[in-house]
Specification:
Number of domains: 1
Pfam families: DUF1731, Epimerase
Order of helices and strands: EHEHEEHEEHEEHEEHEEHHHEHH
CATH architecture: 3-Layer(aba) Sandwich
CATH superfamily: NAD(P)-binding Rossmann-like Domain
Radius of gyration: 19 Å
Organism: Vreelandella andesensis
Distance between the termini: 34 Å
Protein name: TIGR01777 family protein
Family: Belongs to the NAD(P)-dependent epimerase/dehydratase family. SDR39U1 subfamily.
Number of strands: 13
Number of helices: 11
Strand content: 15-25%
Largest sheet: 7 strands, parallel
């Protein structure tokens, strides 16, 4: 199948492109700067600067992963708007592509897998969270809610929509571990605040497998939690990571320092949700790395 990906040059997208090509699919990637990302992607990828540029070879599957890094900059009013627009605009570009295909009498994609994040639920304390849990209203929830809402119009065109609320992605060379590993390797790691908040996580290979699973299972639609079945608290994460590295983790970072340094963005480090992949599990998806120790052992 022809699979069009936004965010294909990102940490998850690169692995997804490789897997899809290995499985015999044609991979189309949207990037604002094709020449800059070409070296990060397999040569077989067809990279163009907009979704509309693929009108001559309409995709059969849409995978929407594009979005500015939520932790790249302090959350000023303008940065919040940038975070929202980067997600909503890329999603709307795919909706526009489908509208144009429909107007031309061309075949529409059969499915769209659209990214979202664990932030949809906001701070949930120690309450177990599945896809039916009511969200806590805060910026990260509103960001994800707008991202998800932008994808909804595609359903009216008869395209199956699956939304994946992604946890912290773990693998070497990027994602959550990229910033955590250096201090932990030096024995300078520690919990954030009390460490009691949950950190839903997923190995990158399991996330890629879940995306392909949703792509292939024609009866699955709606929201799915994209995280491993055994989330841990920040304190447990810290302890497990330090153990894998054979280092101590005795330097906790007080909550007041994180709030002073990051402002509202410190919520990412001090709050979370005990998010479980209930619908993926019910659908028969099997995690290769269901527990954190297995995931970190494979990565490190």
């Amino acid at each position: 199948m022809r699979v069009l990906i936004t965010g294909g040059s990102g940490f998850v997208g690169q692995r997804l492109c490789q897997q899809l090509l290995t499985q015999g699919h044609d991979v189309q990637v949207v990037s604002r700067a094709p020449h800059q990302v070409r070296g990060r992607l397999p040569k077989a990828c067809d990279i163009r600067d907009s979704a509309q540029a693929f009108m001559d070879s309409p995709p059969e599957v849409l995978i929407n992963l594009a979005g500015e890094s939520i932790a790249a900059k302090r959350w000023s009013a303008s940065q919040k708007e940038t975070l929202i627009r980067s997600r909503v605009d890329s999603t709307q570009q795919l909706i526009t592509l489908c509208e144009q295909l429909e107007a031309n009498g061309q075949a529409l994609p059969s499915v769209m897998i659209s990214g979202s994040a664990m932030g949809y639920y906001g701070n949930q304390g120690d309450k177990m969270v599945d896809e039916t849990t009511s969200p806590h209203d805060e910026f990260v929830h509103r960001l994800c809610a707008q991202w998800e809402a932008a994808a909804k119009p595609i359903e009216a065109m008869g395209v199956r929509l699956a939304i994946l609320r992604i946890g912290l992605v773990l693998e070497a060379g990027g994602g959550t571990l990229q910033k955590m590993l250096p201090p932990f390797k030096l024995g300078l790691g520690g919990r954030f605040g009390s460490g009691e908040h949950f950190m839903p996580w997923i190995h990158r290979d399991d996330l890629v497998a879940a995306i392909i699973f949703l792509m292939n299972e024609s009866t699955l639609s709606g929201a799915f939690n994209g995280s491993a079945p055994h989330p841990v608290t920040n304190a447990e994460f810290t302890k497990t990571l330090a153990k894998q590295l054979h280092r101590p983790a005795i330097f906790p970072v007080p909550a007041f320092l994180l709030k002073a340094g990051f402002g509202e963005m410190s919520q990412l480090l001090l709050t979370g949700a005990d998010m479980r992949p209930a619908r993926l599990t019910e659908a028969g998806f099997t995690f290769q790395y269901p527990t954190l120790d297995k995931a970190l052992e494979a990565i490190l």
